[in-house]
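PROTEIN DATA CARD
Card holder: Nitrate ABC transporter ATP-binding protein
Chain length: 218
Origin: Lentzea guizhouensis
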Amino acid sequence: MSLSVRSLTVGYGRSTVLADFSLDVGTGEFVVVAGPSGCGKSTLLRAVAGLVPFGGSISVSGQPVDGPSRDRALVFQEDGLLPWRSALRNVELPLSLQGVPRAQRRALASSWLERVGLAGFEDYLPRELSGGMRQRVQLARTLAQQPSVVLMDEPFGALDAQTRASMQELVTEVLSGTTTLFVTHDVDEAVLLGDRVVVLGAGEVERRRDAILAAVRA
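Structure generated from the sequence above:
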């Protein structure tokens, strides 16, 4: 599904974080929003997720965003796994809350854990998994819900370089064909992952990824 943001304005108290920002993400497109801390990247994702009030308009395939919905899923830097639930049961949790029958949600959870490379780790608790493995569980939990739009808020920022590279490769594979909005402050990551890169900062200028290095150095 496509995503359209028009004249988005978001503020906290007297501070305006985003002003008159517009963006289109085509169906199946992977768009990366890059920029320094505090430029409004995470605020953009929270607005699209329907978690903060905003001015302007946001729509998914023509349907207005007026609050949270299962068709938009947000992936955070912190994995948010419940420490007393196994990897499998963490992936199952949102499906259970949606009323998906036990056998169906278990099959979906197992399938997605396998797709993210965690077959055999279904019964492990979060404390028994590495940081990268926990992020894989979070990704499986997100995708098991079959969202139309995936929103990713610097999900690999706390990982070491080798694990980060592995997760970048995984995301490229499992999110192929899924409408995705990914934010990062890392220029190399933006260039590697994005079909298109948007640079937030002075002027909020949109750039193609082959021009991003020149854009951020300007």
